[in-house]
Every structure is written in structure tokens, then in C-alpha cells.
Design brief:
6 strands; single chain; Nuclear Transport Factor 2, Chain: A; alpha+beta
Length: 91
């Protein structure tokens, strides 16, 4: 199950970087959480299933271009932890 979850999370990042919001959210589980509680900037907090698309759209609208660079995919039981960096160019 963990490797399957890693593949789903990789696809999430790929979809975000393509700005394909439907593909990004299609495999999010009911308990999905995007934890940005330690992030710097205006998008801090924990974003649930119903908030992840809005988060992505608002983040992307702020930048002329933006992409997420995952550094690694860490299997933690049924969870996948991903340290990542955001790259962006201002509008």
C-alpha cells in the first residue's frame, strides 16, 4: 500500500506543476491533509480535502510561474511525507 500511496503523491505534485487541478485532487483520500503549518508565507495551516484545490488555485494566481520541487517521498505507514521547495516568479 505504501508504494501505491507514493505513486499517488508523485502524481499529485506532477498535476500541481501542470496546473491540472482535477487530476491533482482525483486521488485525494477523504482524510487528505496538506500540512503547511510550518510554512513561511500567507499559505500556512493544514488544508483538507475540500481546501486543497482552492489552495493550489490561489497560490498559482499569485505567481507568473510557480512549481513545486519534491525532495524525497518518505513512506510512513499509510502516509507519505514530502519535504519540498516552491519556486516562483512574481507576476
Amino acid at each position: 500500500m505504501s508504494q501505491e500511496n507514493v505513486e499517488i503523491v508523485k502524481a499529485w505534485y506532477d498535476a500541481f506543476n501542470r496546473e491540472d487541478w482535477d487530476a491533482m485532487i482525483k486521488d485525494e483520500a477523504p482524510g487528505f491533509e496538506l500540512d503547511l503549518s510550518r510554512a513561511v508565507g500567507p499559505w500556512r495551516g493544514v488544508f483538507g480535502l475540500d481546501q486543497s484545490r482552492r489552495f493550489a488555485e490561489e497560490l498559482r494566481e499569485t505567481w507568473e510561474s510557480a512549481w513545486l520541487e519534491p525532495h524525497e517521498f518518505i513512506e510512513a505507514g499509510d502516509l507519505v511525507v514530502v519535504p519540498w521547495a516552491m519556486h516562483g516568479r512574481g507576476a
